[in-house]
Amino acid sequence: MSIRPFFIKPAILGVLLFSSISAWAQPRLELMRLPDPRVTIGAANLPLDTFDTRQEPMTQGTIGVTQRIPRGDSLRLASAKKEEMAGVQPYLRQNRRAQVTETVTHLWLDLWSSQESIRLIEQNRGLFEQLADVAEAGYTSATMGSRQQDVIRASLELTRLEDRLTALHTQLASSREALGEWIGSSQAQLSVTENIPPLLLEDVSNGWSETSVESVIRHPSIRATDQLVDAQAIDVDLARQAYKPEWSVFAQYGYRDRAPNGQDRADLFSIGIGFDLPIFTGNRQDRRLNASAARLEAEKTDRVLRIRSFQARARAALARIERLDDRIDLYQQTLLPQMEEQAGASLTAYNNDDGDFAEAVRARISELNAEVELIQMMAERAKTLASFRYLTTEASNIPSFSMSHLQD
């Protein structure tokens, strides 16, 4: 008898057996979450002298199915860990969105600062040209006591002004390219508004007085870390499951051919269970559990350090905003009016042949520098506020984080 037909009947019965086991086991054991069953097909107790399947009564064609059942509660824990890890992504996405908002705001303010500085210098270039004309006219007519060095000084300051404009235009182009990376080149070529949006000028002196943990734990970055702590805590529980035995169930059908005298032989069916004994745990289970516990502690430490970092950065941003507000108020209320008055007095004295041309020029340059510096301070203040808003961003939903894990 050939070997091939010998396996046809066992194979068919094995498929039926496997299907019946799956249908029976799925509602209770949730077979779809179990590891894939293992199917074995073989020939048992074949006589080596003739390979005749009817020669010996013990010869069988076998097909079996083995189903491994993971240790302890590892199936549920593995599923729970995946859910926790999946919960990290929404918070990372929210954090990334907040970071992009901060970055684009900073780039927009760089563009605004360069544009407004150029506009301011362009407005004042005519005044410096008038000063040059006055110095040249006075030197030519010798009626105002102008000297040749006054004419040269006026020309030099105009050249410096042009160089400053060139540098600002370079900065403006660089800012447009950097912003275009985020919003598109065509949009970045548009002129920005002359005023900073009111949202970036708000007073935040009393907007964030809390320095406790509760004031920053709602940040998406912290929530993502919370999810990682939860996932790592589950991983520790998974490592503990390795101390429990792993079970397996198997079923095997054995087909026997007729005896040489034609007598029919009964087919055989075997069923049983198996399990391992995790006795020697020092080299595997203990090390895995210790490593998982160490990673959990590392995640907890990272959470604490991240919270402290956000607190420190938020407090530093508020302090910087407060100092910039003081300086901006000083410039607007006191320094710029005084410098404008000094520049006007110096020019009047020079026109009345009672002052020095260099002093009149220096006064105008100092006033212009102060106005440009005020623009830069306002941009820096708005940047700092944008960074503060990022640091105090709150996640849009509440994670499944349990504070009990931090208290272990």
Number of helices: 8
Percent helix range: 55-70%
Strand content: 5-15%
Low-pLDDT residue spans: 16-31, 399-408
Run of helices and strands:
HEEHHHHHEEHH
What is the CATH class of the largest domain?
A: Mainly Alpha
The CATH superfamily of the largest domain appears as Outer membrane efflux proteins (OEP)
Your description of this structure?
The chain is α+β, with helices and mostly antiparallel strands and 408 residues long. Helices cover 63% and strands 8% of the residues. It has 8 helices and 4 strands, in the order αββαααααββαα. The protein is rod-shaped. It starts with a helix and ends in a 17-residue tail after the last helix. The C terminus is likely disordered.
Annotation keywords:
408 residues; alpha+beta; Outer membrane efflux proteins (OEP); 2 domains; 8 helices; rod-shaped; disordered C terminus
Could you give a short description of this structure?
With 408 residues, the protein is α+β, with helices and mostly antiparallel strands.
Strand and helix layout:
Blueprint: H1 3-29, E1 38-44, E2 60-69, H2 74-86, H3 88-141, H4 148-183, H5 185-188, H6 220-241, E3 247-255, E4 268-275, H7 285-351, H8 357-391
Antiparallel strand pairs: 1-2, 2-3, 3-4
